Amino acid sequence: MESTREMEARIGAKVIRRLVIPCALYILIGAIDRTNVGFAALRMNESLGLSSAQYGFGAGVLFVGYMLAKYPSVLLYEAVGMRRWLATITLAWGICSCAMAAVGSQWELYILRVLIGFAEGGLSSGLMLYLSQWAPERYRASILAIPIVSISIAQVIGAPLSGWLLDQPNPFGIEPWRMMFVIEALPALGLALFAALYFPLRPTEARWLNDAERAWLTANVIGASKPKIAGEHDPERWAALRSPVGWTCAAIWYCILASNYGIMFWLPQVVEGMAGLSPTQTGLIVALPWAASAIGLLANARHSDKTGERFLHIALPALAGGILLLGAYLLGAGLPGLIALVLGGACTGCTVAAFWAIPPQLLKPGSLAMAIVMINMVGSLAGATIPPLMGALRQASGSFLPPTLLLLGVATVSALLCLVAREQARRTLARA
């Protein structure tokens, strides 16, 4: 007779192939469309007459819309189901991303960035909630790591592609940075149609599972047996807002995203300024830390699953990443600086999957959807505050040293918060 471990492994492999990888594709394309403004800035800032502070505000203001859409988007997900929800938001952000090619002023940039953020606002929350209803406990961090690692892969693909597109002459006389926005937005339009046709709403509808697998998944994964209905009364739904553990998790997530978004939106300008490279060369260099980040994220998630420890798998890499990024800046152009940059990117990016294994473990099932929304809303504040703050520091100092020190400070706070959360978790589990 087949053991539980064998059943769990077989189902986990199917879920990864059939659901996790397709979901990862949406996060990958969304990440490219959110962050390609970092490469556009190499030419767009001069074309539109943007200062460092104005660009930083434009990069970060996306997350105002991103934050405002979190809860409404999850309510829409609960009301209409995975397929229609994902198709709608993907089509919306694809159209807005294409419209970035027509930007003519800083205010048009700000408005479109807010609209892209609003369209994408519930993407990560909804997909994490969806996949948590399919993820066996022993594979939770690894399953959630794959969509998350696609953010790093998006930079590995998007950075060289964006740099190359900026170097291409256009026969229609359109500025290359404008054409870059159009080309990189087109995949979202195709994914909208795919979403409308593909995703099962719950395990009982998955034709690629046999009867025994559907029954096991329904019985053994929290939330798999019955999806929440928007507006359905649940006394646990708002419990996350009263939970110290929930708010500590939200603060940690803020710090994690602050470090990652600080790198995403400013690294192309840092690299080009340090080494005087072309956009294509800059893209290839920028891709290296994100490639290392993808490898580090998967390795860290696997080790976290193997040991069952989550908090130090966030704290130690976060602190190491901040120190290495400062070292990369101080070392400057050259092999030692590049090695520090690559290792710093690996450490900074590898904390994410271990983090998302914590909320389902410590919060009640009825409050998980709201907890994911709350955590992501607080995390969105990182995108709305850190890139503009880095731009202001850069403009005031004329140097990237103060922004780099800011990222090191954020990483240090993240590590300290993880120690607080570990103690809170110990107490929570002891009372259970």
From TrEMBL:
Cross-referenced Gene3D superfamilies: MFS general substrate transporter like domains
Pfam families named among the record's database cross-references: MFS_1
Keywords on record: Membrane, Transmembrane, Transmembrane helix, Transport
CDD domains for this protein: MFS_ExuT_GudP_like
Ranges for domain Major facilitator superfamily (MFS) profile: 19-426
Keyword hit for Transport: yes
Signal peptide (from-to): none
Stretches that traverse the bilayer: 15-32, 52-73, 85-104, 110-131, 143-165, 177-199, 245-267, 279-299, 311-331, 337-356, 368-388, 400-421
Primary localization: membrane
Subcellular location: Membrane
Record's bilayer topology term: Multi-pass membrane protein
PANTHER family named in the record: PERMEASE-RELATED, TRANSPORTER, PUTATIVE (AFU_ORTHOLOGUE AFUA_6G08340)-RELATED
Protein name: MFS transporter
Species of origin: Novosphingobium anseongense
